[in-house]
Write a structure and sequence with these properties.
It contains five helices and seven strands, in the order E-E-H-H-E-E-E-E-H-E-H-H. By secondary structure, it is an alpha+beta fold. The protein has a five-stranded mixed β-sheet, with helices on both faces. Strand 6, helix 3 and strand 7 form a beta-alpha-beta unit.
Length: 191
């Protein structure tokens, strides 16, 4: 027999093993019902792929008209063992500073490279996270240009906030949608 604490009255009451199994069974039934109600998605079919993209854009609040045009305001280059690391400071939306590192191979004869956008998750320090720096450096040594932007509220942009950001929802957007739109802006800048 397990003991359950009633947080309202702060007294303990016993919970039978049958009650525990019943709760687990009910949870499993809800998961099965949710899975059964989930539509089958087939992204290899053009019409269905378009529907998936439309639904994802609507859920995240991604709108073409809000994708920023990245404007670089400052940069500095630092060579690092066969790789050039360019430190970029930019503006995405008006009044919204953005930062990124661009790793490029040191191959003078080559003017274009395949591009990898390395999107930082929640590594401490954003683009300054040692794991992301190593990955970008290695990809650049292999011949790719690697763009590593700091997401809104991460890395150098921590003061902008990231957690508990409810303001975008009031405008029909989402924090993840803003990050996606800014990343699309960075991709267009790189192209």
């Amino acid at each position: 027999m397990k003991i359950k604490i009633d947080h309202n009255n702060r007294r303990r009451r016993p919970v039978s093993q049958d009650a525990v199994y019943h709760q687990l069974d009910q949870g499993e039934r809800r998961l099965i019902a949710a899975a059964a109600a989930t539509p089958v998605r087939r992204p290899w079919i053009a019409r269905e792929r378009a529907a998936i993209i439309r639904i994802a854009r609507e859920c995240l609040g991604v709108h073409e008209r809000f994708i920023p045009e990245i404007q670089i305001s400052a940069s500095g280059v630092k060579p690092s063992s066969g790789v050039k690391v360019e430190h970029l400071v930019a503006w995405s939306w008006p009044g919204c500073m953005a930062t990124a590192h661009l790793y490029r191979p040191c191959r003078p004869a080559q003017k274009t490279w395949p591009l990898v956008i390395l999107c930082c998750g929640h590594g401490a320090g954003g683009k300054q996270c040692e794991g992301y720096q190593r990955m970008a450096w290695r990809l650049a040594r292999m011949g790719a240009a690697v763009l590593v932007p700091d997401n809104i509220g991460q890395g150098e942009r921590v003061p902008m906030g990231h957690r508990n950001a409810i303001g975008p929802f009031r405008c029909g957007l989402s924090m993840q949608g803003l990050i996606i739109m800014e990343t699309i802006g960075w991709l267009r800048w790189a192209q």
